[in-house]
Specification:
The structure holds two protein chains of two kinds. In chain A, strand 10 and strand 11 form a beta hairpin. The two termini of chain A are 52 Å apart. Chain A is globular. In chain A, the strands form eight sheets. Chain A has an eleven-stranded mixed sheet, covered by helices on one side. A six-stranded antiparallel sheet of chain A has the order 27-6-7-31-32-33, covered by helices on one side. In chain A, strands 17-18-19-20-14-24 form a six-stranded mixed sheet, covered by helices on one side. Chain A is 32% helix and 20% strand. Chain A has 22 helices and 34 strands. Chain B is built from five helices and no strands. Chain B starts with a helix and ends in a 5-residue tail after the last helix. The chains are: A alpha+beta, B mainly alpha. Chains A and B meet through helix 1 and helix 2 of A and helix 1, helix 3, helix 4 and helix 5 of B.
């Protein structure tokens, strides 16, 4: 009887563990059973050598050859079939990633993860991008390129979902106990709006107000200037070298501005309501993308060269998927696509190559609205009359379909309207008028630089510095996106009066006024998120939150000094470890230490720090043992200099952070004025000058580096030991991530690497546009989202080493070397049995 | 010989049943136990057979991935659950064995009770 009881208890327990999730663990039965459970993913990790699958809706058979890097080469008879195949293939490799992106963008994560994702979903919907995507999709002509492409793509994705065997279900669905959702064309619109959130949400207004509240308007303009103090613009200004527009003397700290302090509180409430998270200080100049192109006369082989290097959040699987789409008599394009969107976004075809960096324009404004009933508004005031508000009732569902929350959202003609605590504020933002990726599809078809520029001219958001080169040797760059023209001061800082249409954007900057260059005399073009155009050349307001131009300075320095560039040199430039920022500041530190010594105010600590720093070659290589000291000193410096920008109640707190940090270029600007009031650290009784502060930062840097990494001779000081890339899995599961990867590069190098190491080079590409287009590229990770697949992270080692793969670009299936064909898949119109 | 044959049949039944789902393991085991087979320790036999069946499936998984998929997968899945790479494989086999043992033991016990209740003996 006891045995019977024991067996019953065991059976009940194992059945329970098999059928029900316990804590964060999934239900073990379905998860572990090896026929269809998670182990079956090992069976699907490799592509079958030859297979045939039916996709409903295909007009003609599509031949897909996977090369030995897992890249599918799609040979189709129509564009629609190519996009169908693309949807099928990407779903096969990245289905969970696609669904996660679409859900994050549409505020539907709670349906997958339950109540813990509720707040994220509410914010996603409140921001207005969901509303905008649905409006854009509904207003799209059904015969338009994006409508056709997203429809065909959806059919491909759904063909994969419909044909999935239990063993094909990705690991992540098993972990969260969910099933894949069918794809809709609308998801592509959601996806592009989410990219706008990533790339176009920076708004320096709050920083500006915070600084103004503490040190007044004049000082704010000096610390957070509209124009970069170092002019090295994207559109060449004919000067052939950076121009230092330094202001001497810099206006000193002024009295606090109480009106700005009130505005800060208001803006903080608004940002909280909309879930805007400011870019972290540690990211600052440490993230950013690069691209450049070189005219044939400055290349070794006499062919135009183009390099692309967008820096984005690094994830496993990657934000990119590599693919080649060939349509007989139509597109023949290769490069990287977003899982979730048809076409190739960055890449090349038989004639043209292109890439992007983010412009970072000021494209978001806020309006104080007057509503008829602050508790339950139905109308808003405009030009003396009342206009009805658009009202959306949003139900957010949980895992079981239960309603977790119901929110009522309001929209004016400008965009979403939220309550900041006391007032109703509406937001206008260019991504609300974006067109769902239509423009990227046009680029795939371009055969010349002129066609490419024309195809791209209507792009709305996020504004991008698009660089292009063609086989005829033409190179060009244009910062393209919708730039609003505003009334008044033309800037987007203040919260405007929403009750007057006179506050609205009056027009857009015309395309002819966009920052632009075509075949410049210097023979090359480059962008690195710096101010796109010299204000002396084009004074129009595009924004003010420009990255320091260190990377741009370095690229241009490399390109100016070499008139025989090769693809191999381009590859080397992408991982270049030098830093103009270090060049500028190391000299300043050493000079200050020497001056302190001469004045009899040096000490052993300072002398030791200076001696160690002088040993640095100012390169962030992995084997370097001195970059850690410089970085520690540079981390300590801003708080010592800009102590006026510490929150008033926290000035004695050593962990306090500045309310906003002026860029290093502004710090360099201050160097020339050794007695500026900014150098005085008001937290001390002494009155400091420049060298006192630089010496103090150097001492602090040494003390912290010694405490953290041990003796300077030890391996603790190795840059590879101190600085890492962290490539997290989409669900931030460490076991599926690649963490603590030693990388070359640091703050403001061409391969910038922030403190957290979560951003970096997401797709490095070099293209030579000769008689035959040759290309090289790599992204961190691999083509497959299946952790059992060798293709999950097979590119990591090469990416870390700064190497690129040769990209195959066959004109026909027969052109792909047989030894490099890993698998062949034939897609037919009929559903396979 | 007959015992080995019945053991092989049992493995096949577990393996085929698992194709439909993990819940087939206790069902097959219960049927086996209820039949009161003439083997020593029928519940333990069921446990061994279920573990063997699932082991065979793991072998198929390993071979299907050309010998490459299972190793990184067990390492990553083990990492997810703070286990060594082999840990989750052992848990998998144990789960199958436990499901089979408990179901077979319970069914066998019930069958014996019914039999003794009706006055018969084996």
């Amino acid at each position: 009887m006891l045995r019977l009881l024991l067996a019953a208890v065991f059976l009940a327990a194992t059945l329970y563990a098999g059928a029900r999730p316990i804590g964060p663990a999934p239900a073990l039965g379905a998860f572990l059973e090896p026929a269809n459970g998670v182990w079956a993913l090992a069976r699907t990790a490799q592509l079958p050598a030859r297979s045939e699958v039916g996709i409903p809706g295909l007009r003609a058979p599509v031949e897909v050859l996977f090369d030995d890097r897992g890249v599918p080469h799609v040979f189709a008879e129509t564009e629609d079939d190519a996009w169908r195949a693309q949807g099928y293939l990407i779903a096969r490799d990245r289905l969970f990633q696609m669904e996660l992106s679409a859900r994050a963008a549409s505020g539907r994560l709670s349906e997958l993860f339950g109540a813990r994702a509720l707040e994220a979903d509410r914010i996603a919907r409140r921001r207005g991008l969901v509303w905008a995507a649905e409006r854009a999709a509904a207003g799209t002509d059904t015969a338009s390129l994006i409508a056709r492409a997203s429809r065909a793509y959806s059919e491909g994705v759904n063909a994969w979902i419909d044909g999935m065997r239990p063993s094909d279900i990705p690991l992540e669905y098993r972990l969260v106990g969910a099933r894949p959702t069918r794809w809709e064309p609308l998801f592509t619109f959601y996806f592009f709006n989410q990219m706008a959130l990533t790339l176009a949400y920076e708004d320096p207004t709050l920083d500006r107000l915070r600084v103004r509240a503490l040190v007044g308007a004049a000082a704010t303009e000096a610390l957070l200037p509209r124009n970069s103090p170092i002019q090295e613009p994207i559109q060449p200004n004919g000067q052939g070298a950076p121009r230092y527009d330094f202001q001497h003397p810099m206006p000193p700290p002024g009295p606090p501005d109480t009106a700005a302090a009130v505005a800060v509180a208001e803006r903080e409430r608004l940002d909280l309501a909309l879930g805007w998270t400011p870019r972290g200080r540690e990211d600052g100049d440490a993230v950013g993308s690069n691209n450049w192109s070189v005219a044939p006369r400055r290349t070794s082989a006499g062919h135009a060269l183009l390099a692309g290097d967008p820096h984005l959040e690094l994830t496993l699987p990657s934000v990119w998927y590599e693919i080649h789409l060939k349509v007989e008599g139509g597109i023949d394009v290769a490069g990287v696509a977003f899982p979730g969107a048809p076409g190739v976004v960055i890449g090349f075809n038989r004639n043209v190559a292109w890439s992007f960096t983010n412009t970072g324009a000021d494209v978001r404004d806020h309006y104080a609205e007057t509503v008829d009933d602050p508790a339950r508004p139905a109308r808003y005031r405009l030009d003396g009359g009342w206009k009805p508000l658009e009202r959306r009732v949003e139900e957010i569902h949980g895992r079981g379909g239960d309603v977790l929350a119901t929110d009522t959202l309001y929209f004016t003609h400008r965009g979403p309207m939220v309550k900041d605590g006391t007032r109703w504020l509406s937001v206008r933002w260019t991504p609300f008028e974006a067109r769902g990726g239509e423009d990227f599809l046009r680029l795939d078809r371009a055969t010349t630089t002129a066609e490419w520029l024309d195809a791209w001219k209507g792009f709305v958001a996020p504004a991008q510095n698009g660089i292009v080169a063609d086989r005829a040797g033409t190179i060009a760059i244009r910062s393209t996106g919708r730039y609003p023209v505003r009334p008044g001061d033309g800037r987007g800082d203040e919260i405007r009066d929403g009750s007057s249409s006179g506050s609205d954007w009056t027009s857009d900057v015309p395309v002819v006024d966009y920052p632009f260059a075509l075949n410049p005399a210097q023979g090359f073009l480059a962008s690195a998120n710096q101010q796109p155009v010299d204000p002396r050349v084009n004074p129009r307001y595009f924004g003010s939150d420009w990255y320091s131009p260190w990377r741009a300075m370095r690229i241009n320095q490399l390109l100016r000094s070499d008139s025989a560039i090769t693809p191999e040199k381009m590859r080397g430039f992408q991982g270049d470890a030098a830093s103009p920022r270090a060049d500028a500041f190391v000299a300043a530190f050493l000079s200050a230490a020497a001056a302190m010594d001469r004045a009899g105010r040096g000490d052993d600590s300072l002398r030791r720090a200076a001696a160690l720093l002088s040993e640095w070659d100012r390169r962030y290589t992995r084997e370097n043992r001195r970059a850690v000291l410089f970085d520690a000193a540079m981390t300590a410096l801003p708080t010592l200099v800009w102590d006026e920008l510490l929150p008033p109640g926290e000035r004695t707190d050593s962990t306090a952070r500045l309310v906003a940090q002026p860029q290093d270029a502004v710090l360099l600007e201050l160097m020339a004025d050794s007695g500026s009031a900014w150098w005085d650290d008001r937290r001390t009784s002494a009155v400091e000058r420049r060298d006192d502060i630089l010496a103090r930062a150097l001492r602090i840097g040494l003390a912290e580096t010694l405490a953290r990494y041990g003796a300077p001779e030890g391996d603790g000081w190795l840059w590879a030991h101190a600085h890492h890339a962290n490539i997290y899995h989409l669900m931030r599961l460490p076991a599926l991530s690649a963490l603590d990867l030693p990388v070359q590069g640091g703050t403001s190098t061409l391969s910038p690497s922030p403190g957290r190491g979560t951003h970096g080079p997401s797709w490095r590409m070099v293209v030579e546009l000769g008689p035959e287009v040759r290309a090289w590229g790599i992204y961190p990770g691999g083509q497959s989202g299946n952790p059992a697949s060798p293709g999950y992270a097979d590119r990591l080692a090469k990416w870390l080493a700064g190497e690129l793969d040769t990209l195959l670009f066959p004109a026909s299936p027969a052109d792909l070397p047989p030894g490099r064909v890993r698998a062949t898949l034939t897609l037919t119109g009929a559903r396979s049995p | 010989m007959k015992r080995w044959l019945s053991f092989a049949v049992l493995i096949a039944a577990f393996a085929l049943g698992s194709r439909l789902g993990w819940w087939m393991v206790p069902i097959v085991a219960a049927l086996w136990g209820f039949m009161r087979p003439i083997v020593n320790a029928p519940a333990a036999t069921a446990a061994c057979a279920a573990a063997c069946a699932w082991g065979l499936w793991l072998l198929l998984d390993w071979q299907g991935g050309e010998g490459m998929g299972l190793a990184p997968l067990s390492e990553r899945l083990g990492g997810l659950m703070s286990l060594p790479p082999i840990g989750l494989i052992i848990i998998t086999l144990l789960l199958g064995a436990l499901l089979a043992w408990s179901a077979a033991a319970l069914a066998g016990g019930i069958a014996n009770s019914l039999k003794s209740g009706s006055g018969g003996s084996k």
